[in-house]
Amino acid sequence: MSNHNLSRTEAATRSALVTTHSYDVSLDVRQATDTGVSGYTSQSVITFSAEPGSSTFLDFIHDGVHSVFLNGKGLVVSEVVDGSRINLHNLLAENQVTVTGTALYSRSGEGMHRFVDPADGLCYLYTQYEPADARRVFANFEQPDLKAEFTFHVMAPSGWQVASNGAEVSRAPLSTDPDTSRWDFAPTKRISTYITTVLAGPYFRATDHWTKTFDDGTTLEVPLALYCRSSMRESFDADALFQLTKNGLDFFNELFDYPYPWGKYDQAFVPEYNLGAMENPGLVTFTEKYVFTSRATDAQYQARANTLMHEMAHMWFGDLVTMAWWNDLWLKESFADYMGTLGVDKATHWDSAWVNFANKRKSWAYVQDQLPTTHPIVADIPDLEAAKQNFDGITYAKGASVLKQLVAYVGFEAFIEGSRRYFRDHEYGNTSLGDLLGALSAASGRDLATWARQWLQTSGISTIAADISGDGVLMESVALRQDSLDPITGKTEHRPHRLRIGLYNPDDQGRLLRTEGIEVDVEGPETTVEALAGKERPALLLVNDDDLSYAKVRLDAVSEATVRSALDRISDPMARALCWTALWDSARDAVTPAALYVAAVERFAPAESGIGVLLNVLGNAVTAVERYVPVPQRGAVRASLLDTAARQLRACEPGSDQQLAWARTLAELSRSDDAYAELLRGILSGRVTVEGLAVDADLRWSLWQALAANGAADLAELDAELAKDRTAAGSVGHALAAAARPDAAVKTAAWDAALNDASLSNDILGATIAGFSLAPSGLLEGFTEPYFDSLENVWRSRSIEIAARIVRGLYPSGQDLPEGMAPADQPVLRRTDEWLATHAGAPAALRRIIIEQRSHLYRALAAQAIQGTE
């Protein structure tokens, strides 16, 4: 990674010297279809101010710099180019620098990604930069606080679609090469480098427009466009996406009282994307997994809508107003995560947005916040490698959860008025924590400094439990006990919570309904709830009812017994989701045996009406079986859940989302058990039919992967399936299945490919690693030492994205606890500790991944240990 890793100190020094004005960027990708050509010509013309006589540097990760001109004078390339930096000396007050060089096409999803569609051989390009990969495409000052206006020019094959942030202003074939055209785009307003973008290829393009007339009589007209690969056109539901887009633009323009500022609104769905989406103003990019070529559940459509709304909120939070440095990444991501859910709730037909947020997004935050590498929402980000690692559950989901609390604290109207003030005061600029708190404090009349310290600048999660005394009929007293330790400082941090306590009792039909609810402020380690003293003890006392606060909840003994016997009778979807979460947290934390969670899933999941919740609890159940249940019990627990899945496959309403969810669970569990291999083969061949079940490409590959992992499918069969599915998804499915075969030679080949084959794209690499990791106990033991031996070389020689995939994916996490052994003595855990102790000087981002993987492993072993004593 050489000198790619820009530090915060270096960025601050450069920002103090330099003010950027404009970029004029030309890219020549006319030879992109020739995969033998590894790069393309990139020219960047930058105008900027500087302190006279000072020195600074540009960022450019390249395959050769051809020329550098500073204020009209050609510089000696060998003297000014130092790895990925171009040094500039003796600057004037006003400067222009022109850098021409060769940039490389990417297969990692970083920079200019090149993808050749296996369905038709067509070539597609798109860019992805966050946090700092624009420098892989053109020379620039790569940091968010050096905003500028950007004008792009692209030379590409004449038959292609080409787009960028700005509107297309001209397009013409070259007089010397009519097969090549030059596209010129309008200058942007002031934006950061990481949200610039270019899209080029034979994409299918659909168009529409959105219009809004404001109270003052002015009208805003926004052209809309959607892009996907040509081979996916038949599956592209453009009308539905346009409607969601219009709903979002209606909602956010009204909510923020600041007209959409970026002219057009394009959205492109692109292959092999590392993220869910990216908020490039004027041209948002999404993973093409949101173009559903196989049967998708309503929860998947809702998740897509949430991502669309999330990215649209970024047009204001993040693009219009941008954090000055990555410490304040939450300023855009936490807000967008909150606003994405709010947008789905208020501007679409879905009514379960906050239920899914509580069950899925907050669970992600809870997991992240219990790792030893957790961090405050306002994080300490010393460099770009650390920034890359902080796109996590804390920055997104915990931040959004805390913002939801803040809205309740200051009031929704004050929160929105503060946001509007923030946009007006800082439009096209950069901000930090104090700027936003100032706007919200002014709007609400509240001093938010204490709130910010307690919630944004501390780490860890509170666990709240109700301590109830009484005679079993009446509650003599109820106290809420808060256990909260900041894992970074080691100090107890009792945060304030405003939450609701719900009292649930059965009605005459046996349904568990809320019969009373009270709101209470929790302060300190113990809060007595006076309002509950003397009341009848309910069947279920649900702390944090309606999910108002960010905290884990422990059920009291009576409530837990009610939930484990009658979870399906809780009528309210949010209350039911919170009970599911409480059971899962208890299993993950080794408080109760994971087999009990699986038993609850078998008993109550068939009646779960919320498909988002169902998908989540089924996924948790598979994790519980494969990682948390001890080996002596695992086979029986897995077999029982498999039997439930097979029964539900036929018992569910034909063609329903629930049926598909159980089919997916059957396939996933069957990776480790061949009891239903004949059923899977029968479904694949058509010999066995399940009424309503769509046996499409996604499901077929899941079934083949299960058979392959059990040694029940050979390579010839997998190749034959690939021949029938020459798509990108088919290639990924095949790679995973092929690497999953339980054969030592197969595993060695997959290992070598993952570590040494730099030609593998990000998606194929990920599939190869996932398939490699599917293996019977003992087959991967020989790879533990090679893994630790390879770490530093992998981190040094590969890009951050690819290195992180390899380090995280190949960690030997599939370990079990031998009977009678303490978790800390498990050999892989001890080997991990040894590596960390002897590699204290390894890159911090690398160490963070290893520490997190160790933590996940220890949690699994601890869960197995507590159940081993039952």
Q: What report would you give on this structure?
A:
It is a single chain. The mean pLDDT is 96. The chain has 27 helices and 29 strands. Strand 19 (277-278) and strand 20 (283-287) form a beta hairpin. The longest helix has 25 residues, at 844-868. Strands 1, 2, 4, 5, 8, 9, 10, 11, 12, 13, 14 and 15 form a twelve-stranded mixed β-sheet that branches. A five-stranded mixed β-sheet has the order 16-17-18-20-19, covered by helices on one side. A four-stranded mixed β-sheet has the order 27-24-23-29. With 870 residues, it is an alpha+beta fold. Helix 23 (762-773) runs parallel beside helix 25.
Set down the secondary structure blueprint.
Blueprint: H1 8-17, E1 18-28, E2 39-50, E3 56-59, E4 65-70, E5 73-75, H2 77-80, E6 81-82, E7 85-88, E8 94-106, E9 111-116, E10 123-128, E11 149-157, E12 161-164, E13 168-174, E14 177-185, E15 198-201, E16 204-213, E17 219-228, H3 238-256, E18 265-270, E19 277-278, E20 283-287, H4 298-314, E21 321-323, H5 330-347, H6 353-369, H7 384-389, H8 394-410, H9 412-426, E22 429-431, H10 433-444, H11 449-455, E23 463-470, E24 475-483, E25 497-506, E26 512-522, E27 526-528, E28 540-545, E29 552-554, H12 557-566, H13 573-588, H14 594-604, H15 611-628, H16 631-651, H17 657-669, H18 677-685, H19 697-709, H20 715-724, H21 728-740, H22 744-756, H23 762-773, H24 784-797, H25 800-810, H26 827-838, H27 844-868
Parallel strand pairs: 1-11, 8-9, 17-18, 18-20, 21-22, 23-29
Antiparallel strand pairs: 1-2, 2-8, 3-7, 4-5, 4-8, 6-7, 9-10, 10-15, 11-14, 12-15, 13-14, 16-17, 19-20, 23-24, 24-27, 25-26, 25-28
Helix pairs in contact: 3-4, 3-5, 4-5, 5-8, 6-8, 6-13, 8-9, 9-10, 13-14, 13-15, 14-15, 14-16, 15-16, 15-17, 16-17, 17-19, 18-19, 19-21, 20-21, 21-23, 22-23, 23-25, 24-25, 26-27
